[in-house]
Amino acid sequence: MSASHAVAAAVALLFLPPPAAEAASPGRARVLATLASDQVKESSGLARGLANPGVFWTHNDSGDGPRLYAFGADGGARGVVDLEGPGVRNVDWEDLSSFTENGRPFLLVADTGDNRFERDVYTLYIVPEPGLPSAGGHATVTPSRAIRFRYEDGAHDCEAAAVDPTSGVVYLVTKVWSGKAGVYAVACRESTEDEPCRAVSVGTASLPRATGMDFSADGLRAIVVTRGDAFEFERTPEEAWPEAFARKPRRVDLPHRKQGESICYGSDDATLYLTSECGKKASGPCVPLIEVPRARERLPEKR
């Protein structure tokens, strides 16, 4: 076998799911399943269910309605939930994260995509995590609030957004093709069309093509995924996130995905889960759910 054929074979084997009895070792990625629903072609955000343990939530990129899809770790479809209410729509949904507020589980849906830098106002939907529709059917949910915001320095394309569970602040990392990505914070909880909130710059980070983000449940770690690998930031309980984002993050090697745009932590706050877009024209189920087992690590102490 030629060297090139050997490499190709090794890559192909990476995406074959192991036998059911085999446990993945730390650092070894494996495909857990292919999402059974052929309605999901462009999984652009991913969140672990908090009200529904063992369930994940995802959504399509722009072009779909304001709709969330629930599925299990086996890829099985667990229902479809439509967001409803005045002005609710999917302009360009790009990320999804789960968090708790006053003991209740919520989902953040980030309508923040702007490839052409032409939007003036963006929207963050705060959605009570819905119950699963019976028999995997349809249900509806109304966002508890929609936070309209604009950046303090003009339009940005953003595909990475998540809620810091310790403060309730939404952090956003802009998508840039080279150079420094902007890190912004939206701290307000209420807004109107006439008086949107402000996304305030809190720093920059060397994160080209950031496409997804999540915070650990304790609010001490943040993972940002790119089209290639992921980068993890960590803070101490005494630090604010802008301080942590100013440091060099830990690089987390990820397997190849066709178009990786999503990431979330597992219940252990270490294991990572990924999906990948496969294209609107793909036939049949095609979105993989990938698990990356990891042990909890600590960043080096600050000097």
Overview of the molecule:
The radius of gyration is 19 Å and the shape is globular. The chain has one domain: 6 Propeller (Neuraminidase). Residues 1-25 have low confidence and may be disordered. Helices cover 6% and strands 41% of the residues. The strands form four sheets. The protein has an eight-stranded mixed β-sheet with strand order 6-7-8-10-14-13-12-11, with no helix packed on it. Strand 6 (93-101) and strand 7 (104-111) form a beta hairpin. With 303 residues, it is mainly β.
What is the residue-averaged pLDDT? 88
Provide the spatial order of strands within the biggest beta sheet.
6-7-8-10-14-13-12-11
The largest pleated sheet is described as: 8 strands, mixed
The 3D shape can be described as globular
Range of helix content: under 10%
Question: How many distinct beta strands?
Answer: 21
* Strand percent estimate: 35-45%
Instruction: Please name the CATH architecture.
Output: 6 Propeller
| Global Rg | 19 Å
The number of helices is 2
* CATH class descriptor name: Mainly Beta
Order of helices and strands: HEEEEEEEEEEEEEEEEEHEEEE
**Helix/strand class:** mainly beta
In short:
The protein is mainly β.
List keywords for this structure.
303 residues, mainly beta, Neuraminidase, eight-stranded mixed sheet, 21 strands, globular
